[in-house]
Amino acid sequence: MPPTPSSASVLVVDDEPDLRTLYELTLLREGHAVVAAADVTQAREWLAQQRFDVVISDMRLPDGLGLDLLRELGETQRPEKCIVITAYGSAENAVESLKAGAFDYLTKPVDLKQLRSAVTAALQSLREQRGGMSGNATAPATAHGSGAGDASRKPDVPSSGAQSLRRIVGSSPSIAQIKTRIEKVASSMAPVLILGESGTGKELVARAVHDCSHRHAGPFVAVNCGAIPENLIEAEFFGARKGAYTGATTDREGYFQAARGGTLFLDEIGDLPLAMQAKLLRVIQERRVRALGGVQEEAVDVRLVSATHRDLNALVQGGQFRQDLFYRLNVIGLRTPALRERRDDLPLLVNALLARLCAESGQNVPALSPRVLAWLQSRELPGNVRELENLLQRALALSNGDVLEPEDFGEADDTSEMPTQPDQLSPADGSGASVTRPPEEIPADLQTYLDEQERQVLLKALRECDFNRTAAAARLGLNLRQMRYRIQRLGIPMPSDDDDANT
Ligand SMILES: Nc1ncnc2c1ncn2[C@@H]1O[C@H](COP(=O)(O)OP(=O)(O)OP(=O)(O)O)[C@@H](O)[C@H]1O
Ligand SMILES: [Mg+2]
Q1: At 404, is the secondary structure helix, strand, or coil?
Q2: CA–CA gap between residue 45 and residue 11 (Å, rounded)
Q3: Pocket test for ligand 1, best of 385, 447, 450 (most atoms within 8 A of CB)
């Protein structure tokens, strides 16, 4: 059968003749051009003769491992997308393959529907990498490639991806590196885990991974794992059938269903309750979910990206996070650098944030007095870019000129002056009571809002006490244990020495 426009050339490698034939027939029926090999040696012979779009290989072969083939393809910069078939339950092989650059993996016994959709996804991804070559992923796939086209091995990022990457501001090596990695890993199915302090742009990175991938036209569903009441969490994730629980009056989709064909972003994954961790692990392994109260499981095609500001290794050590789940989520690790590790990016960031904030509020971008940058450079900024953004937003609101001065930040030369902002405490009446004002707008997420308020209050107290926890706790009417807990929960980084100048 001649290849149709959406057809691929596929190499199937499996030593079991029956399975080999089954895969071959399945893919032939889809209109793909398929050849088969029974072991690593035969596969190498085919690969020496021609290019393929997709290589599907069993992991364990008589004369070697599918992983070896995969590595060879990677080392020689071959264009093929690899799908590895692993034995049921061998999570390590699956993870190893993804780390070695496999596009995806399938678990035995292979579900033929999953086989077909994995090949389709691989083709889609190839097509985008080759930069909108109309329709046919196979175009230069056959033999004797003179090398034309090979030079552009760097994945072509869809325009949504390019835009998303531009939103990550910074020219420091750590930012350049994370952007390169995003482009590189976006096209595989491998789960991504983003670690980094609060306010360092983890969500921006998650979004960029989605926008750079071939799933960019699909949904991006972001979930805050710490914000869902424990009794609702299963239904929220996997959906619920009518009558599954009191109040379930209709069938409801969960996040997994909503993210079908796209990316599910599990934010604050460190806050996921243990019981739910076990269920999530199962879904990742089987790639199927069952709605609460449902009978049938359904296959879900979802790419997982997770993030947390917490120390997951410590949580694993402490028994609060499952090691096997950590292992599954952390196939590709990305780390967002703290602002103090990239001080040189500060001017760029300030300008970009000012431009964005002013555009949002329809105000002219003010000029910046050089003293502002110097003042910002001298600050700790443990809340990273988010804190910088908050400071600028406040300054814009308070400033009444065309030039931003340190005084507009409300605390330039005398930090003991009392705040006029609603997000700070006023202990001035000596009663220990705080003045709270209602927010101007109802926050979209109460917990995030309250956390942010708490963070600000804690930071202020800590700063004013030279980051002495005991003193800050006393100021807030907390005991030391409560203070420690809060600092940890909100991920407030503590300087190791008293280097904060705010006294
Ligand atoms: N590199 C960056 N360039 C531009 N803006 C950034 C950058 N990093 C973060 N921001 C901005 O800072 C704010 C916080 O970013 P984001 O929500 O992605 O951080 P986070 O790491 O998820 O923080 P948290 O752990 O508190 O949820 C957002 O408004 C984001 O747009
Ligand atoms: Mg976040």
Answers
A1: strand
A2: 11
A3: 385
